[in-house]
Amino acid sequence: MKRTLAIMVGAALILLLATLTLVVMPYLQMSAEQVPPDLKPYTEQQQRGRQVYIANGCVYCHSQQPRDPSFAPGDKARGWGRPSVPGDYAYDEPHLLGTMRTGPDLFNIGARQPSIDWQLMHLYNPRAIIKGSIMPSYPFLFRHVNEPAEGDKVVNIPPPYGPETGKIVATEDALALAEYMLALDHTYPAPTLPKAQPKSDEPKENRAP
Fold first, then answer.
1. Among its keywords, does the record have Plastid (predicted)?
2. Strand 154-155 relative to strand 142-145: parallel, antiparallel, unpaired?
3. pLDDT in tens, 165-197
4. From edge to edge, which strands make up the β-sheet containing 142-145?
């Protein structure tokens, strides 16, 4: 009986320790994380586009987390921007960090490609812009019409990727997804970004104060 009780108490203590380490402490740490002042909440349209992004599996091929140069120097060299910090994801529920990079990181795609026309054309057929791209096309996010109606967003697809007749117009889902892409611009300063430490062999007079 005493042995059973000891096992139960030990198991409860292990569970408590795991809860404190994996749940409580990270929650307290993240609650105190500073949100960058220039980070803006998503608009209603951008939130809709975010759901389209999730629904079409974009998160499986694209990450949204440039890494620190000390860990992965290639991220900065590719032009993906500064390392992300926890505060950058304050309005992301759920976060879309991603686990693979079949395609490029999209943390700053809105800064790299700030044109909605580029974004829409790329969604309709990536090969129309990037030769040899393996990204799937999303023509179901668009409509093929003979004559666009007033207010339609026409997407001018270059031959041979567009239709021979008529026009391609973006649906509300396509426009929302494009607006979400444009919202991915984290080029503002990150107050909590760790400062680079000088190398130990660097002369003291050359080190940053």
1. no
2. unpaired
3. 999 999 999 999 999 999 999 999 887 776 655
4. 142-145, 167-170, 154-155
